[in-house]
Every structure is written in structure tokens, then in C-alpha cells.
Write a structure and sequence with these properties.
mainly alpha, 5 helices, elongated
């Protein structure tokens, strides 16, 4: 079980992500790449990190899982924005652009801010839990058998 402080970071002295407090050299970079690749290649970056490092590093796997969850959630939010924009465009294109475009832009800016926070924490060897309203848990941690 992972213990977090009120600001979402793993508490020092308590076992870290997935019950593992140590990680190998390079895991921080892999974890940060998983987050920073989301704006550019969406699901591909965290999925690549997850596939490449899941078996060898609990640290990289946990960060890649969270980045993957965020990218899938963001794709669903974007799909909803397209649907709402299309429905509004049936009435007036100007109304659709005035509502859907700023809402989508705000979503992307907020997401980018949280991605940078999470990537900075990952490169520092910490875990930053993204808010539940932004990042739905789709890919879950496997239960140890």
C-alpha cells in the first residue's frame, strides 16, 4: 500500500510506490518521459514505458500506469468535447466555437500543468498523485498473487 502526504507525494521513510522504496538508475528518466510524452503522442509514450519497464521496475511501472490512465482519460474528455462541439454546431458554429474551444483549451492547460508537476516529481524520485477528477483509474495495479 502506498502512503501519501496531503500534497500527494509519497511520505519519506515509508515504502514508496507499490511498496518499493528503491529504484534503479534511469528509472526517473523513464517515468518522466512517460508523463512528458502524453501531450505529443498521447497513449503511446506511457504505454511504451509501461511495456519496456513494467517487469524490471515497480517505480517506472507505477508512473507509467498513472500517465497511461491520464492519457486515456484525456482522450475520453476530448471525445466528449468533440461530441458537445458537434451538437452545438448543429445550432450555430459560432456558439460551438465559443463554448467547446475554450473548454478544451482550459482542459489541456490544466492537464499540462499537472503533467509537468508529475514529471518533475518523477525525475526527483517521488510520486505525485494526480487528482481523481483529472485522472480516472482505468489501468489498475495488479494484485500480488
Amino acid at each position: 500500500m502506498t502512503s501519501f502526504s496531503p500534497d500527494g507525494r509519497v511520505r519519506p521513510g515509508v515504502s514508496g510506490v507499490s511498496g518499493v522504496s528503491r529504484h534503479r538508475d534511469g528509472d526517473e528518466a523513464w517515468a518522466a518521459v512517460g508523463y512528458l510524452g502524453v501531450p505529443f503522442v498521447s497513449v503511446a509514450a506511457p504505454l511504451a514505458v509501461y511495456v519496456a519497464r513494467a517487469r524490471s521496475s515497480d517505480y517506472a511501472r507505477a508512473h507509467a500506469r498513472q500517465a497511461l490512465n491520464l492519457s486515456v482519460t484525456l482522450a475520453l474528455y476530448n471525445l466528449c468535447a468533440v461530441i458537445v462541439g458537434t451538437m452545438l454546431a448543429l445550432d450555430t458554429v459560432g456558439v460551438a466555437l465559443a463554448i467547446a474551444l475554450p473548454a478544451t483549451l482550459a482542459l489541456w492547460l490544466v492537464t499540462l500543468a499537472y503533467l509537468v508537476k508529475a514529471a518533475a516529481a518523477a525525475s526527483a524520485g517521488e510520486f505525485y498523485r494526480l487528482p481523481g477528477w483529472l485522472c480516472a483509474t482505468i489501468v489498475r495495479e495488479r494484485d500480488p498473487a
